[in-house]
Write a structure and sequence with these properties.
By secondary structure, this protein is an alpha+beta fold. Helix content is 37%, strand content 20%. The chain has a single domain (25-41, 52-385), classed as oxygen-dependent coproporphyrinogen oxidase, CATH 3.40.1500.10. The strands form two sheets. A seven-stranded antiparallel sheet has the order 1-2-3-4-5-6-9. The protein starts with 35 loop residues before the first helix and ends in a 10-residue tail after the last helix.
Length: 395
């Protein structure tokens, strides 16, 4: 793993938590464009992280000579059509998510030599996607890095749910377009947390040919054993990415994340949160796109550092059984509450294999299980029941 080569400030991953923390708050109207290089420098990686990954450039988004070899598969939309419409947000989003998908896959291959299954699928009317799957790897028990570009007609149920959430949509929804990236990583070692992110762009057109658009997304961490330094590092990474565009984003999106990933029937959260946002358009098309892109780019080196830190941590059968119990909770949330799962299962053009790819390979449900008071397992439950401010809390 060459993640930290060439940077004096980056120490070993073991003590990455000592990196200095600072924030930069700008007015939302200015929408400054800080690069991933700035974020890497703030985290203490310096330029070396960019050299190591070499994949964070989004040059392809506006490059007329873009090369499909930088992706895991060919583009969903015909390449010639993308070049003809290179400035369209649909084009830019498709190219961005395909690039980030490849970046994620390359970062996982630094740890696990299990061959990635690359499954390019095609749906109706030009819809399609690329599913990249690791299954039964040495480090990652299951990882799904999925992209999809779909368009067509919403089912009546999906249209009604959408209109309930967005009061500005009054007409009949004629067609929709959605492009998204979804990543779920279930590691084998219980000391490595499960990771999830999702970024999406949505357009709908009503019967009057009026177009509505917005972005959505979320990033969250689900540990099995609580490492406070990991969680603080994770949240500070997200805060910096948010502060680059609007200092109000992180606290608002953090609260939304804590609310969204709540398992109501268990009275606990799925994990230690992160950020979650939907119906986001306040920065305009360009600014909102850049914000989503920055978030997507910043989390790859962040999660890689956490994986590397715990790569060789010891664990036994008791830790494994606890991990499987927590994965049961993960499955409960995804199947009962998750909006994306509901949307996918209620949309005719969706692909069920992709919709359910986020589920863990194995899970467990024990009758009336409760962790022992004072145990490490009980320590985790405390923060799942009552979320913390990970950026400012010192305990």
């Amino acid at each position: 793993m060459t993640l930290f080569i060439g940077t004096k400030r980056a120490r070993t991953v073991i003590d990455y938590c000592r990196f200095r923390f600072s924030t930069s708050c700008q007015d939302c109207r200015q929408t400054p464009r800080k690069s991933i290089r700035d974020i890497a420098a703030w985290l203490g990686f310096g330029g070396g992280v960019l050299t190591a990954f070499g994949t964070f450039t989004t040059k392809a988004e506006t490059n007329e000579d873009l090369n499909e070899s930088q992706f895991m598969a060919k583009t969903v939309t015909d390449l010639s059509k993308l070049k003809q419409n290179k400035d369209a947000m649909r084009t830019r989003m498709e190219l961005m998510i395909l690039k980030v998908q490849a970046d994620f896959c390359k970062s996982l291959q630094e740890f696990d030599d299990k061959e990635i299954i690359v499954d390019k699928w095609a749906g109706k009317r030009g819809s399609g996607g690329v599913s990249c799957i690791i299954q039964n790897g040495t480090v990652f028990e299951k990882a799904a890095i999925l992209t999809s570009v779909v368009h067509g007609h919403l089912s009546d149920n999906a249209a009604e749910r959408l209109k309930k959430r967005r009061s500005d949509i009054r007409g009949t929804i004629i067609q929709y377009f959605a492009a998204g990236l979804s990543v779920v990583i279930h590691p084998r070692n219980p000391m490595i947390p499960t990771f999830h992110c999702n970024f999406r762009y949505f357009e709908i057109i009503d019967e009057h040919d009026k177009r509505y658009w917005w972005f959505g997304g979320g990033v969250d961490l689900t540990p099995y054993y609580l490492d406070v330094d990991d969680v603080k590092y994770f949240h500070k990474t997200l805060k910096y990415a948010c502060d680059t565009y609007n200092p109000k984003f992180y606290p608002e999106f953090k609260q939304q994340c804590d609310r969204y990933f709540y398992i109501e029937h268990r009275h606990e959260r799925r994990g230690v949160g992160g950020i979650f946002f939907d119906d986001l358009d306040c920065l305009g098309p360009q600014g909102t796109f850049e914000f989503v892109k920055t978030c997507a780019q910043s989390i790859i080196p962040c999660y890689s550092a956490v994986v590397k830190k715990h790569l060789t941590d010891a664990y036994g059968n008791a830790e494994r059984q606890w991990q499987l119990l927590r994965r049961g909770r993960y499955a409960e949330f995804n199947l009962i509450y998750d909006r994306g799962t509901k949307f996918g299962l209620n949309t005719p053009e969706s692909r069920v294999e992709s919709v359910l790819a986020s589920l863990p390979l194995e899970a467990r449900w024990d009758y009336k299980h409760s962790p022992l008071p004072g145990s490490k397992e009980a320590e985790l439950i405390k923060v799942l029941v009552k979320p913390k401010d990970w950026v400012t809390d010192e305990d």
